[in-house]
Specification:
With about 100 residues, the protein is of the alpha+beta class. It has a domain at about 10-80. It is built from three helices and two strands. The chain has a two-stranded antiparallel sheet with strand order 1-2. The protein is flat, with a radius of gyration of 18 Å.
């Protein structure tokens, strides 16, 4: 499961349910994602998403997304993180490319 080993829930503020309700109300209960045509998604918003990943729980950094758009955004962010060089390990080189 995606949440296995995650500390995300424990890092949410104690008033997260209240913040979540405010975001749902603010965004009208509808996903705020835009399609490439510029049209707004019309599916019900189910997931309150952090626009910039991290622990900034301010309303300006939160948006309501449908499950499909939230999974798509999270997948994109996960792939980008996976491809980003680790600060803990030196980049590996191929022996044939070493001088």
């Amino acid at each position: 499961m995606a949440w296995d080993g995650s500390t995300r829930r424990s890092r949410l503020p104690k008033n997260w349910p209240r913040i979540r309700r405010r975001i749902i109300r603010r965004d009208g209960g509808v996903c705020v994602a835009l399609y490439s045509t510029g049209a707004r998604c019309e599916l019900p918003g189910t997931d309150v998403d952090h626009i910039v990943p991290g622990d900034d729980h301010t309303e300006a950094n939160l948006q309501l997304l449908c499950t499909w758009h939230h999974l798509r955004k999270s997948s994109t962010e996960g792939n980008a993180a996976r491809l980003r060089p680790s600060v803990h390990r030196p980049p590996s080189t191929h022996p044939a490319l070493d001088d």
